[in-house]
């Protein structure tokens, strides 16, 4: 019987211009701990995760190693990899760096560095779904009516019941996502997320129903909301 491993690939190479902060958003404090450190901690504490790979702007690697990885004692961080021009390039850098250490059927969970409120339960569900499908992504049903707009004019109104808001992690067997990225790179195709690259190859991507609290922190308002969510989640854990 083959035993396959699971790895987390955490891209945190964005500049965070919308946050308007003096440091990149991943290093902002969330209830006394840097956002990216909180994100890493969830995967560090998950027994299903064998190793974590971080993708960080090249010039920030020494800072991240000293003040995030070493400062919080993250023993599962196997490598800190320099990011690329766009997120897709950063993920590809990470996959290439992992390629000599993972097997084709190992699961890779790609998760935003500024999405710190992911749970161990969703990680476990994602791994299971990725083993049974070409890929899996955490998502939540859209609450609002969505409009398709062109030049400021509504073109159509998609049926809301068919629309889901994609989150992360997005989980795949390594060979599936690496080959999908290689194909996209060869064709100069830019996808909106990693799952879209699998979809492009004809692979089925399974939806894992997520949590509306699993937000991506990109604005000051997001940070305030995350603080409230985190406080509530910590209280829930204390009552367990």
Describe this entry's structure for a reader.
This protein has helices spanning 35-45, 61-70, 87-98, 120-132, 174-186, 194-200, 220-239, and strands spanning 6-11, 29-30, 33-34, 51-56, 77-82, 107-110, 135-141, 148-150, 153-156, 164-173, 205-209. The mean pLDDT is 93. It contains seven helices and eleven strands. The strands form three sheets. It has a seven-stranded mixed beta sheet, sandwiched between helices. Strands 2-3 form a two-stranded antiparallel ribbon. Strands 8-9 form a two-stranded antiparallel ribbon. α3 crosses α5 and α5 (174-186) packs across α6. The protein has a single domain (6-138, 165-239), classed as Spore Coat Polysaccharide Biosynthesis Protein SpsA, Chain A, CATH 3.90.550. β4, α2 (61-70) and β5 (77-82) form a beta-alpha-beta unit. It is α/β, with parallel strands linked by helices. The longest helix has 20 residues, at 220-239. It is globular.
Topology:
Blueprint lengths: L5 E6 L17 E2 L2 E2 H11 L5 E6 L4 H10 L6 E6 L4 H12 L8 E4 L9 H13 L2 E7 L6 E3 L2 E4 L7 E10 H13 L7 H7 L4 E5 L10 H20 L1
Parallel strand pairs: 1-4, 1-6, 4-5, 7-11
Antiparallel strand pairs: 2-3, 6-10, 7-10, 8-9
Query: Whole-number radius of gyration?
Result: 18 Å
First CA to last CA: what distance?
36 Å
Give the CATH architecture.
Alpha-Beta Complex
User: What would you call the structural class?
Assistant: alpha/beta
Q: Which strand order do you get reading across the main beta sheet?
A: 5-4-1-6-10-7-11
- The portion of residues assigned to helices is 25-40%
Tell me the total number of β-strands.
Answer: 11
The low-confidence runs, each spanning 5 or more residues with pLDDT under 50, are none
Mean of residue pLDDT?
93
Q: Number of helical runs?
A: 7
Q: Which CATH class?
A: Alpha Beta
Q: Which sheet architecture does the biggest sheet show?
A: 7 strands, mixed
- Our estimate of the beta-strand percent is 15-25%
Which topology does CATH recognise? Spore Coat Polysaccharide Biosynthesis Protein SpsA, Chain A
């Amino acid at each position: 019987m083959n035993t396959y491993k699971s790895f987390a690939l955490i891209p945190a190479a964005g500049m965070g211009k919308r946050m308007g902060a003096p440091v990149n958003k991943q290093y902002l404090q969330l209830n006394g701990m840097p956002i990216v450190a909180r994100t890493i901690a969830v995967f560090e504490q998950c027994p299903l995760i064998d190793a974590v790979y971080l993708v960080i702007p090249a010039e920030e690697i020494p800072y991240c190693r000293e003040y995030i990885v070493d400062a919080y004692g993250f023993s599962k961080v196997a490598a800190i990899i320099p990011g690329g021009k766009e997120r897709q390039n950063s993920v590809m850098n990470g996959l290439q760096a992992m390629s000599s250490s993972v097997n084709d059927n190992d699961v890779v969970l790609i998760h935003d560095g500024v999405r710190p409120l992911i749970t161990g339960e969703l990680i476990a569900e994602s791994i299971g779904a990725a083993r049974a499908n070409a890929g899996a992504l955490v998502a939540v049903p859209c609450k609002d009516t969505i409009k398709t707009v062109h030049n400021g004019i509504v073109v159509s109104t998609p049926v809301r019941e068919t629309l889901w808001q994609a989150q992360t992690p997005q989980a795949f067997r390594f060979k599936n996502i690496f080959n999908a990225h290689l194909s996209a790179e060869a064709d100069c195709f830019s996808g909106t997320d990693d799952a879209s690259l699998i979809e492009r190859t004809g692979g089925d991507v399974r939806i894992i129903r997520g949590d509306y609290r699993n937000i991506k922190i990109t604005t000051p308002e997001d940070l305030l909301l995350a603080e409230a969510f985190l406080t509530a989640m910590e209280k829930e854990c204390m009552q367990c």
